[in-house]
Amino acid sequence: xxxxxxxxxxxxxxxxxxxxxxxxxYVLHMHHNHEQGVTKKLEWSEFMEQQIVSxxxxxxxxxxxxxxxxxxxxxxxxxxxxxxxxxxxxEQVKQYQAQTQKLxxxxxxxxxxxxxTQEQHQSRIDQITASSSEQVLKYTEKxxxxxxxxxxxxxxxxxxxxxxxxxxxxxxxxxxIYTYMYIYxxxxxxxxxxxxxxxxxxxxxxxxxxxxxxQQEVETYWKKKLNPFSFCNFDINNNNKKxxxxxxxxxxxxxxxxxxxxxxxxxxxxxxxERKQSSADFAxxxxxxxxxxxxxxxxxxxxxxxxxxxxxxxxMYITFENSWNWTCEEVGCWLISINCKMYITSFIEQYIxxxxxxxxxxxxxxxxxxAVKSMHCKKIIREIxxxxx
Length: 389
Prior knowledge:
Blueprint: H1 2-5, H2 12-48, H3 55-225, H4 233-249, H5 253-258, H6 262-286, H7 289-315, H8 328-337, H9 344-349, H10 354-359, H11 363-368, H12 374-388
Helix pairs in contact: 2-3, 3-7, 6-7, 7-8
């Protein structure tokens, strides 16, 4: 049974065939063993003098024989079918083999043709490359000759053009410098003249008005208060004459026309301070403190208004560079640029220039000395930090 089951075969129907044969052999073997067992039992029954009815065994044998016959018939049919299928498969295999042989022959033919075409193609490529290389060499030689001729012509033209270009360059540079200097001088002169005229007229007008007011106040004060003191009229008149002479000699148009810029304002401030000191010295022996305070306040207001007006006009033309070398007026322009123009008077009174602004000014100085609000202190300190860096 196991021998027939494990026999190797190429097709499945051979395996089925072997299984079927093994089943038949197994059935026959069992039948044979049954017969032997029956004979043995009969021998023992004869030996023991017992009779056994054998009708049932005969019926079973007949049934088994019929089953075996049926199985043989089925097996023969299946065998014939399997044989037919095997023949068909063999025929198909033969056909496939013939087709493969034909295809192999065709492939060999196509390979031979392909090799022949490759050889022809390579021979043509070699011919073309040889001819093209010769043509390329000829063209390169011609190109080298043309390039040499072109370079020689360019050199000749460049020499002639270089002279023309140099002459044109010199003339253009001269024209550019001349036009630039002319335009710069005209613009500078016109702006300077306009600024001088505007500043001088405005400052002279305002200063003359303030001077008239101060003179009227002084004259009214002398008329009201100093009439009882007849014994010192002579000294007071002399002092009044000196004071009037100082007011008349002091004018804004002179320094602004002579020196335009921060020097004019510095001279004006120094003259105002000298006048302040002289008026204070004059007030001491007379002992009229009210007059001294009013005079100082008016003079301070005049100086501050003049400085503010000058700073506003200067702000239109100033460029914020070299902050360490700034004057008080330029510091005022810087305050206008950061929207803190309300502190210009305090900065001018403390005479804060660029070096003091960048080196000595901190939050403590801004709050205590310059009366800056806490909401503006951080902004001013931040802008000072930007100027330093």
